[in-house]
Amino acid sequence: MANEHQAKAWNGYEGEHWASHHARYDAMIADLNEHLFPAAALTATDRVLDVGCGAGQTTRIAAGLAAHATGIDLSGPMLAQARAASSDLANITYIHGDAQTYPIPDNEFDVAISRGGIMYFDDPVAAFSNIRRALRPTGRVAFIAGGALKPDSDSMVAFKALSQFVPRPARESGDTSPNPASLADPSYARKIFAEAGFDAIAVQTRETVSVVGENAADATDFILKWGPVRYALDQACVSDTTEVRAAVTSALRPLETSSGVRWSSDVVLITARVESSTG
Predict the structure, then answer these.
(1) CATH no. for residue 182?
(2) Measuring CA to CA, which residue among 249, 247, 264 is closest to residue 215?
(3) Structural domain contains residue 158
(4) Residues 195-233: pLDDT tens digits?
(5) Is 60 within the bounds of a domain?
(6) Is pTM, for the whole model, over 0.70?
(7) How confident is the model at residue 278 (pLDDT cuts 50, 70, 90)?
(8) For strand 92-96 and strand 199-213, is the pairing parallel, antiparallel, or unpaired?
(9) Buried b (16+ CB within 10 A) or exposed e, 265-275
Protein backbone atom coordinates (compact mmCIF):
# COMPACT_ATOMS: atom_id res chain seq x y z
CA MET A 1 0.00 0.00 0.00
CA ALA A 2 1.34 3.45 -0.94
CA ASN A 3 1.70 6.06 1.82
CA GLU A 4 0.82 3.50 4.51
CA HIS A 5 2.34 5.52 7.35
CA GLN A 6 0.39 8.62 6.35
CA ALA A 7 -2.85 6.65 6.06
CA LYS A 8 -2.41 5.31 9.59
CA ALA A 9 -1.59 8.73 11.03
CA TRP A 10 -4.41 10.61 9.34
CA ASN A 11 -6.99 7.97 10.18
CA GLY A 12 -5.72 7.76 13.77
CA TYR A 13 -4.81 10.37 16.36
CA GLU A 14 -3.40 12.90 13.87
CA GLY A 15 -6.57 13.05 11.77
CA GLU A 16 -8.84 12.93 14.80
CA HIS A 17 -7.02 15.86 16.41
CA TRP A 18 -7.20 17.96 13.24
CA ALA A 19 -10.88 17.11 12.80
CA SER A 20 -11.68 18.00 16.41
CA HIS A 21 -9.74 21.28 16.21
CA HIS A 22 -10.34 22.09 12.54
CA ALA A 23 -11.41 25.68 13.21
CA ARG A 24 -8.23 26.36 15.15
CA TYR A 25 -5.98 24.78 12.52
CA ASP A 26 -7.76 26.71 9.76
CA ALA A 27 -7.27 29.97 11.69
CA MET A 28 -3.61 29.14 12.31
CA ILE A 29 -2.82 28.73 8.61
CA ALA A 30 -5.36 31.18 7.19
CA ASP A 31 -2.56 33.34 5.77
CA LEU A 32 -1.79 30.54 3.30
CA ASN A 33 -5.10 31.21 1.56
CA GLU A 34 -3.82 34.67 0.62
CA HIS A 35 -1.02 33.01 -1.34
CA LEU A 36 -2.92 30.01 -2.71
CA PHE A 37 -6.07 31.44 -4.21
CA PRO A 38 -4.60 34.39 -6.13
CA ALA A 39 -2.15 31.93 -7.69
CA ALA A 40 -4.96 29.51 -8.57
CA ALA A 41 -6.95 32.32 -10.23
CA LEU A 42 -10.19 30.32 -10.17
CA THR A 43 -12.99 31.27 -12.53
CA ALA A 44 -16.72 30.62 -12.42
CA THR A 45 -16.45 27.81 -15.00
CA ASP A 46 -13.56 25.91 -13.41
CA ARG A 47 -13.79 22.42 -11.98
CA VAL A 48 -11.32 22.18 -9.09
CA LEU A 49 -9.50 19.28 -7.45
CA ASP A 50 -8.37 20.04 -3.87
CA VAL A 51 -5.54 17.64 -2.96
CA GLY A 52 -5.23 16.85 0.74
CA CYS A 53 -8.36 18.85 1.44
CA GLY A 54 -8.53 17.96 5.14
CA ALA A 55 -11.59 19.39 6.86
CA GLY A 56 -12.60 21.11 3.65
CA GLN A 57 -12.06 24.84 4.21
CA THR A 58 -10.13 25.29 0.97
CA THR A 59 -12.65 23.11 -0.89
CA ARG A 60 -15.48 25.35 0.30
CA ILE A 61 -13.58 28.48 -0.70
CA ALA A 62 -12.95 26.96 -4.13
CA ALA A 63 -16.61 26.01 -4.51
CA GLY A 64 -17.55 29.63 -3.87
CA LEU A 65 -15.31 30.78 -6.70
CA ALA A 66 -15.69 27.97 -9.24
CA ALA A 67 -18.32 25.75 -10.84
CA HIS A 68 -17.48 22.68 -8.77
CA ALA A 69 -14.85 21.57 -6.25
CA THR A 70 -13.81 18.03 -5.37
CA GLY A 71 -11.73 17.42 -2.25
CA ILE A 72 -9.62 14.28 -1.87
CA ASP A 73 -7.97 13.19 1.38
CA LEU A 74 -6.65 10.11 3.16
CA SER A 75 -8.28 11.04 6.46
CA GLY A 76 -11.70 9.64 7.27
CA PRO A 77 -12.12 11.79 10.42
CA MET A 78 -11.26 14.99 8.57
CA LEU A 79 -13.51 14.16 5.62
CA ALA A 80 -16.40 13.52 8.00
CA GLN A 81 -15.95 17.07 9.28
CA ALA A 82 -15.61 18.38 5.73
CA ARG A 83 -18.84 16.73 4.63
CA ALA A 84 -20.72 18.04 7.65
CA ALA A 85 -19.52 21.59 7.03
CA SER A 86 -20.40 21.37 3.31
CA SER A 87 -23.81 19.75 3.59
CA ASP A 88 -25.59 22.81 2.21
CA LEU A 89 -23.29 23.20 -0.82
CA ALA A 90 -24.46 21.40 -3.96
CA ASN A 91 -21.25 21.92 -5.94
CA ILE A 92 -18.86 19.99 -3.66
CA THR A 93 -17.80 16.34 -3.80
CA TYR A 94 -15.41 14.57 -1.41
CA ILE A 95 -13.30 11.49 -2.10
CA HIS A 96 -11.77 9.35 0.65
CA GLY A 97 -8.63 8.24 -1.11
CA ASP A 98 -4.92 8.64 -1.79
CA ALA A 99 -4.19 11.17 -4.54
CA GLN A 100 -1.10 9.13 -5.49
CA THR A 101 -3.11 6.05 -6.46
CA TYR A 102 -6.82 6.88 -6.55
CA PRO A 103 -8.31 6.38 -10.06
CA ILE A 104 -9.37 10.00 -10.56
CA PRO A 105 -11.22 10.32 -13.87
CA ASP A 106 -9.08 11.50 -16.79
CA ASN A 107 -9.43 15.09 -18.00
CA GLU A 108 -11.93 15.92 -15.26
CA PHE A 109 -10.53 19.13 -13.75
CA ASP A 110 -9.34 22.54 -14.87
CA VAL A 111 -7.33 23.31 -11.74
CA ALA A 112 -5.72 21.36 -8.90
CA ILE A 113 -4.98 23.16 -5.63
CA SER A 114 -3.46 22.13 -2.32
CA ARG A 115 -2.77 23.92 0.95
CA GLY A 116 -0.03 21.79 2.45
CA GLY A 117 -1.29 18.39 1.32
CA ILE A 118 1.43 17.38 -1.16
CA MET A 119 4.67 16.89 0.82
CA TYR A 120 4.19 13.35 2.10
CA PHE A 121 3.82 11.15 -0.97
CA ASP A 122 6.01 8.03 -1.02
CA ASP A 123 6.39 8.53 -4.78
CA PRO A 124 5.81 12.20 -5.68
CA VAL A 125 6.33 11.66 -9.42
CA ALA A 126 3.61 9.00 -9.42
CA ALA A 127 1.33 11.24 -7.35
CA PHE A 128 1.73 14.33 -9.51
CA SER A 129 1.45 12.22 -12.68
CA ASN A 130 -1.88 10.92 -11.39
CA ILE A 131 -3.03 14.48 -10.68
CA ARG A 132 -1.85 15.65 -14.10
CA ARG A 133 -3.81 12.87 -15.79
CA ALA A 134 -6.94 14.17 -14.05
CA LEU A 135 -6.43 17.65 -15.51
CA ARG A 136 -7.82 18.80 -18.82
CA PRO A 137 -5.48 20.02 -21.59
CA THR A 138 -4.20 23.47 -20.54
CA GLY A 139 -5.13 22.65 -16.94
CA ARG A 140 -3.07 24.15 -14.13
CA VAL A 141 -1.99 23.62 -10.53
CA ALA A 142 -1.34 25.90 -7.56
CA PHE A 143 0.14 24.14 -4.54
CA ILE A 144 1.46 25.32 -1.20
CA ALA A 145 4.20 23.17 0.38
CA GLY A 146 6.37 23.59 3.45
CA GLY A 147 9.46 25.73 3.03
CA ALA A 148 12.99 25.19 4.24
CA LEU A 149 13.29 24.95 8.02
CA LYS A 150 15.55 27.81 9.06
CA PRO A 151 17.18 27.32 12.48
CA ASP A 152 16.72 31.01 13.36
CA SER A 153 13.09 31.33 12.25
CA ASP A 154 10.27 32.13 14.68
CA SER A 155 8.62 28.81 13.96
CA MET A 156 11.66 26.89 15.23
CA VAL A 157 11.60 28.49 18.69
CA ALA A 158 9.21 25.94 20.18
CA PHE A 159 10.96 23.00 18.55
CA LYS A 160 14.36 24.11 19.81
CA ALA A 161 12.90 24.08 23.31
CA LEU A 162 11.40 20.64 22.67
CA SER A 163 14.72 19.30 21.43
CA GLN A 164 16.10 19.54 24.97
CA PHE A 165 13.78 16.68 25.86
CA VAL A 166 13.21 14.99 22.49
CA PRO A 167 16.33 14.86 20.29
CA ARG A 168 15.41 15.46 16.65
CA PRO A 169 17.14 13.10 14.21
CA ALA A 170 19.34 15.04 11.81
CA ARG A 171 18.35 15.02 8.16
CA GLU A 172 21.02 14.69 5.55
CA SER A 173 21.34 17.52 3.04
CA GLY A 174 19.10 16.80 0.07
CA ASP A 175 16.86 14.38 1.97
CA THR A 176 13.57 14.35 0.02
CA SER A 177 11.80 11.62 1.95
CA PRO A 178 8.26 12.56 3.06
CA ASN A 179 8.51 15.50 5.46
CA PRO A 180 7.11 19.05 5.65
CA ALA A 181 10.08 20.46 3.68
CA SER A 182 10.39 17.70 1.08
CA LEU A 183 9.60 20.12 -1.79
CA ALA A 184 11.39 23.16 -0.37
CA ASP A 185 14.32 22.93 -2.80
CA PRO A 186 13.12 24.74 -5.96
CA SER A 187 15.37 22.74 -8.30
CA TYR A 188 14.11 19.44 -6.87
CA ALA A 189 10.47 20.57 -7.02
CA ARG A 190 10.86 21.64 -10.66
CA LYS A 191 12.48 18.29 -11.49
CA ILE A 192 9.66 16.29 -9.88
CA PHE A 193 6.92 18.26 -11.64
CA ALA A 194 8.74 18.07 -14.99
CA GLU A 195 9.06 14.29 -14.62
CA ALA A 196 5.33 14.19 -13.89
CA GLY A 197 4.69 15.90 -17.22
CA PHE A 198 4.01 19.50 -16.22
CA ASP A 199 5.15 22.61 -18.07
CA ALA A 200 5.62 26.27 -17.14
CA ILE A 201 6.72 25.25 -13.65
CA ALA A 202 7.37 28.08 -11.18
CA VAL A 203 8.54 27.68 -7.59
CA GLN A 204 8.46 30.70 -5.30
CA THR A 205 9.31 31.07 -1.62
CA ARG A 206 6.75 33.09 0.32
CA GLU A 207 6.78 34.21 3.95
CA THR A 208 3.66 33.42 5.92
CA VAL A 209 2.48 34.20 9.45
CA SER A 210 0.71 31.67 11.66
CA VAL A 211 -1.33 32.44 14.77
CA VAL A 212 -0.55 29.52 17.08
CA GLY A 213 -2.43 30.48 20.23
CA GLU A 214 -3.95 33.27 22.32
CA ASN A 215 -0.84 33.42 24.51
CA ALA A 216 2.31 31.38 25.15
CA ALA A 217 0.63 28.94 27.54
CA ASP A 218 -2.29 28.34 25.17
CA ALA A 219 0.06 27.87 22.20
CA THR A 220 2.19 25.42 24.18
CA ASP A 221 -0.82 23.34 25.12
CA PHE A 222 -1.85 23.17 21.46
CA ILE A 223 1.64 22.30 20.20
CA LEU A 224 2.11 19.50 22.73
CA LYS A 225 -1.05 17.87 21.39
CA TRP A 226 0.09 17.89 17.75
CA GLY A 227 0.43 14.35 16.43
CA PRO A 228 4.17 14.40 15.62
CA VAL A 229 5.02 16.11 18.93
CA ARG A 230 2.93 13.68 20.95
CA TYR A 231 4.51 10.75 19.08
CA ALA A 232 8.03 12.08 19.72
CA LEU A 233 7.32 12.51 23.43
CA ASP A 234 5.92 8.98 23.63
CA GLN A 235 8.97 7.58 21.83
CA ALA A 236 11.24 9.42 24.28
CA CYS A 237 9.17 8.04 27.19
CA VAL A 238 8.32 11.54 28.41
CA SER A 239 5.14 11.03 30.43
CA ASP A 240 5.48 14.04 32.73
CA THR A 241 5.50 17.12 30.49
CA THR A 242 5.82 19.70 33.26
CA GLU A 243 9.38 20.68 32.35
CA VAL A 244 8.69 20.49 28.62
CA ARG A 245 5.65 22.72 28.99
CA ALA A 246 7.60 25.30 31.02
CA ALA A 247 10.46 25.38 28.50
CA VAL A 248 8.22 25.76 25.44
CA THR A 249 6.04 28.39 27.11
CA SER A 250 9.13 30.41 28.06
CA ALA A 251 10.49 30.15 24.52
CA LEU A 252 7.21 31.39 23.03
CA ARG A 253 6.72 34.40 25.30
CA PRO A 254 8.72 36.77 23.05
CA LEU A 255 6.29 35.93 20.23
CA GLU A 256 3.21 37.04 22.16
CA THR A 257 1.34 39.96 20.61
CA SER A 258 -2.01 41.62 21.21
CA SER A 259 -3.43 39.29 18.53
CA GLY A 260 -1.89 36.09 19.88
CA VAL A 261 1.33 34.12 19.47
CA ARG A 262 2.41 34.76 15.90
CA TRP A 263 5.32 33.18 14.13
CA SER A 264 6.64 33.59 10.62
CA SER A 265 7.94 30.83 8.39
CA ASP A 266 8.59 30.16 4.74
CA VAL A 267 6.37 28.17 2.43
CA VAL A 268 6.79 27.23 -1.20
CA LEU A 269 4.22 28.17 -3.85
CA ILE A 270 4.37 25.82 -6.83
CA THR A 271 2.45 26.59 -10.01
CA ALA A 272 2.52 24.64 -13.27
CA ARG A 273 0.49 23.99 -16.39
CA VAL A 274 -0.47 21.16 -18.66
CA GLU A 275 0.39 22.49 -22.10
CA SER A 276 0.23 19.27 -24.07
CA SER A 277 -2.23 16.45 -24.49
CA THR A 278 -3.00 14.49 -21.31
CA GLY A 279 -3.37 11.29 -23.29
Answers:
(1) 3.40.50.150
(2) 249
(3) no
(4) 999 999 999 999 999 999 999 999 999 999 998 898 889
(5) yes
(6) yes
(7) very low
(8) unpaired
(9) bbbbbbbbbbe
